[in-house]
Amino acid sequence: MRVAITGASGFIGKALVTALREDGHTPIAISHNVERAALALPGAEVLSFNQAIAHWPAVDAVVNLMGESVSGRWTPEKKREIHDSRVIGTRKLVEAIGRASSRPRRFVSASAVGYYGDRGEEELTEESPPGRSFLADVCVRWEAEARQVESFGVSWAIVRLAVVLGYGGGALGPLTTLFKLGLGGPIGGGRQWFSWVSLQDTVRLYQHLLESDHQGVFLASAPEPVRQGEFASALGAVLGRPAVLPAPALAVRLVAGEFASELLDSRRCLPRGTLAAGFHFEFPRLMPALRVALRKPDGPA
């Protein structure tokens, strides 16, 4: 199967490219920065985003992972980039597919659990309504653009990503920095729900959806979310660092920028739709996932 992947040089994209190759598929990276993608994905076929939009390649499926990083300060310019890279970028991608003489059969697009906003004790599933926040609004618009591919006869799936735990990228970078600065204790009281997923299960879910015909929204979120305080204790135990003193929300925001909302907001995500689609989580529990996530691929961290 030939699979076009936007955002292929990113944290999830690189792992997905490797997994698809190992399964005998042909991944094709579509990137705004061809040189960077070629360096990150040696030996992979790489197309520029503009080239692909102008002359859509013949592929069997598409995975849409593109999006400006949400880490750092959300200045007005940063917010515009976060929005446009997802919403406008996905619109251009779908329009290119619509114009193509040979269309893919399958389109799997990313979204995020930021869709739900801060929801306290509420149990959140794929059927839950969106929240009210900047990121929730972006996710609603992003998903709406992705679903438009159905008008061209292409089946679709949307993956709402929780905080992805894996070595060499994602959330663990700023989180381990907090511990090294002595700010690794419970944040904001520690009672808020923290939804997470291993990088391995994230990649496996994309593979599962590429190879199936399940249409709809699917949560990439482990079936056992934890309280933020429990997450901090588990991460501290794996790192061998204390996680006792509460971390002031203001200090966390100074270190993590608006990424701090992922730690301060409460999202109790339960992947009922994902499980109903026949997906099995290899890492449903936090401690085993953290041990693997903090281990270098070729040995101990």
Structure characterization notes:
With 301 residues, this protein is an alpha/beta fold. The chain has one domain: NAD(P)-binding Rossmann-like Domain (Rossmann fold, 3-Layer(aba) Sandwich), CATH 3.40.50. The chain has twelve helices and 14 strands. Strands 3-2-1-4-5-7-12 form a seven-stranded parallel β-sheet, sandwiched between helices. Strand 8 and strand 9 (169-170) form a beta hairpin. Helix 1 (11-22) crosses helix 7 and helix 8 packs across helix 12 (286-293). The longest helix is centred in the first third of the chain and has 24 residues, at 76-99.
Query: How would you sum up the major sheet?
Result: 7 strands, parallel
**What name is given to the CATH topology?**
Rossmann fold
**Class by alpha and beta content:** alpha/beta
- CATH superfamily, by name, is NAD(P)-binding Rossmann-like Domain
Number of domains: 1
- Report how far apart the termini are: 35 Å
Main sheet strand line-up? 3-2-1-4-5-7-12
Q: What number is the mean pLDDT?
A: 90
CATH architecture: 3-Layer(aba) Sandwich
Count every beta strand, where a strand is a DSSP E run of 2 or more residues: 14
Low-confidence stretches: none
Describe, in short, the structure shown:
With 301 residues, this protein is an alpha/beta fold. It has one domain (2-293): 3-Layer(aba) Sandwich (Rossmann fold), CATH 3.40.50.
Topology:
Blueprint: E1 2-6, H1 11-22, E2 26-31, H2 34-40, E3 45-48, H3 49-54, E4 61-64, H4 76-99, E5 106-112, E6 123-124, H5 134-147, E7 155-161, E8 163-166, E9 169-170, H6 172-180, E10 193-194, E11 196-198, H7 199-210, E12 216-220, E13 226-227, H8 228-239, H9 249-256, H10 261-264, E14 268-269, H11 272-276, H12 286-293
Parallel strand pairs: 1-2, 1-4, 2-3, 4-5, 5-7, 6-14, 7-12, 8-11
Antiparallel strand pairs: 8-9, 10-13
Helix pairs in contact: 1-7, 4-5, 8-12
